[in-house]
Amino acid sequence: MAILKIARMGHPVLAGIAKPVADPATPEIRRLVADMLETMIDAGGAGLAAPQVHVPLRVVVFQAPAEGDDSGSDTAPLTVLINPEIAVIGEEREAGWEGCLSVPGLRGLVERPSHIRYRGVDHEGHGIERVAKGFHARVVCHECDHLDGVLYPQRMADLKQLIFETEAHHWLPRQG
Ligand code: NI
Prior knowledge:
By secondary structure, this protein is of the alpha+beta class. The chain has a single domain (about 10-170), classed as Peptide deformylase (Peptide Deformylase, Alpha-Beta Complex), CATH 3.90.45. The chain is built from two helices and eight strands. It has helices at about 25-45, 135-145; strands at about 45-50, 60-65, 75-90, 95-100, 105-115, 115-120, 125-135, 160-165. Nickel (II) ion (NI) binds next to helix 2.
């Protein structure tokens, strides 16, 4: 395994459309997934998409850990999702603060669908189909946007809400 270099906003690989993976169960994909997981965990991210490590393929990894008493479709274990598809459920949307390993040091308030259904396969070729809400839905939408060349600032309604992490205490309720 290896920790991979993360592309930053402005690198063309982040603006392109990633290609579907023809065979998710090859050694090359297995190695890519292992390296992406190690890179995501090392960087302290909630998710990572293959274009962020300069590989233009439709592969994402993510996790949505439980916060407090959250359970069910709010949370997701460490997940590998290849060739993902997202369907929005209902019309409800919610705003939440996002960060991105390709946009280091910044946070932005982004409105996303509250409920989604997503599906794809993992790196062993097993099908995944889940309903997601809350942060779980947000991280999946954010990561899948990377596969279509979209970074979260492009989803923002008001760029006044694109801020440095170090200034977030002016905006966010104090934790704990
Ligand atoms: Ni990102």
